[in-house]
Amino acid sequence: MNFKLLSASFGAILLSIHTSFGQVTENPKVDESSAPYVKIKRVELTDDNTIIHLQFVDKTPKQPQFRSQPGLPPLPDSRVPRGLPQINESQIWLDPETRLYKPGEIDKKFRFIRAQNIPTTSKMNVSSGDTVDFVAYFERLTPGIEEFDFYEGRSQGGLQSWNFYGIHIKNPLKKETGKPSKPVAKATVPTKKPAAKAPEKPAPAPKKEVEMAVLKGTVYNAKTKEPVAAQISYLEDGDTLQVRSSSGKYRVGVNVNGQYKFRVQARGYYGSSFSLAPADSSSQSFDQDIYLTPLIVGETILLPNIYFETSQYTLLSESFEELNRLVDVMLDNPTIKIRVEGHTDNVGDFDKNLELSRQRAESVKNHLIEKGVNSNRIEAKGYGGTRPITKGSEEERKKNRRVEFVITEL
How far apart are CA 29 and CA 147, in angstroms? Predict the structure, then answer.
């Protein structure tokens, strides 16, 4: 046998082995992930398993003390969160409750079987700058599922879970062989009555899994309708969690019994927020697109959820969350100057409404100054009822009572 023939035969053998054991996807496309320091390097599908090859890279710099998540106090020495450094060391592990899901179909899940080179019941120390390659084995994905989610769980207690959303792989449907099925022999009827079996002991109740819902959507520029790279933050069990999207698309797994408030931020845009209570809906899949207003000179931006005492200009505490978002924008963009504008409806005395709107704008300005924004960057004006945005029903006219800001300099 010459060399060319030998090579061809060897290639045919390799191809037959590859076909028998399924598909391999190198460096699969992943729409979003919760931790940028963990990557999926390869997904291999065998007859029995979905094998996921991952890589952890500790890129955290050496720190003299613990570093907690934003908004949380420094962590005690006894708790080292995954991915956060203790001077020059991190701890990692893989939760055995990790599951694979088909996006939007939570009932289609594939359980974790075992892992290699990473513990599941303890923690492994990793020095700063180290790389750890590890493998996770799951039940075999059903042929035809070519996009799935890797869901380790909800981050809590300052610990970061590793979740991947929208993993794209090669997993085509199996072709029918067309072979006729063998005839099934008829069961013979027993001539004797079988002896009664002893009553079986009831099987132990399976461990109840936390039900998960999926929230997904895209962040857009409200002017151009083009996708925007953004960060989605939310609170869960007291922890602040973040999902970063370079494409604008995002997907988040949430507890179906939880209540959430999401905050969306993007550089060069005014942020937005929205709430979600999955238990209020029979669905386990939610779509929420977000449109952010760009920070450009002359742009008028509504400040929602600003509340005052009735017929007064004293701010209520329910307003502080929205106002603090504006504070963050002003501090992150130190060259921006704005004009805060107060508006009322046209019911009542014209002059009193004009003065009330001015006082309310001044109240907003004073709050920004108290939070560290320089006073020469803020102007305040009141327009009373002279600039209505609607003339509809009484309910519609309530929209005229509002606070806005205009970017005057950037």
Answer: 10
Q: Given this model, what pLDDT does residue 320 score? A: 92
* Nearest-angstrom CA–CA distance, 130 and 60: 10
Domain 21-71+81-168 bears CATH identifier 2.60.40: yes
Residue 29: phi and psi, rounded to 5, are -65, 130
155-175 in b/e burial notation, b at 16+ Cβ within 10 A? beebbbbbbbbbbebebeeee
CA-wise closest residue to 262 among 321, 346, 342: 321
Q: Which CATH number fits domain 212-294: 3.40.50.170, 2.60.40.1120, 3.30.1020.10, 3.40.50.720?
A: 2.60.40.1120
CB atoms within 10 A of CB 60: 18
In this chain, the answer to whether the domains covering 21-71+81-168 and 212-294 adopt an identical fold is yes
Half-sphere exposure of 271 (CA within 13 A, CB side): 23
**pLDDT at residue 127, as a whole number:** 86
Contact 318, 349 (CB under 8 A): no
Query: What is the per-residue pLDDT for 243?
Result: 83
Strand, coil or helix: what is 152? coil
What's the confidence (pLDDT) of residue 280? 82
Nearest alpha carbon to residue 84 among 169, 141, 157: 157
| Residues 293, 270 contacting (CB under 8 angstroms) | yes
Residue 36, judged by CB atoms within 10 A of its CB (0-12, 13-18, 19+), counts as exposed
Question: What is the model's pLDDT at position 62?
Answer: 53
330 contacts: CB under 8 Å, gap ≥ 6: 336, 338, 368, 373, 377
The helix-helix angle for 350-370 and 320-332 (nearest 10°) equals 60
Record the pTM: 0.58
Which residues of the chain fall below pLDDT 50?
1-21, 64-87
CA distance 405 to 410: 14
For 300-409, CATH gives 3.30.1330.60
As beta bridge partners, residue 308 has 315
Write down the number of H helices and E strands in the chain.
Answer: 4, 24
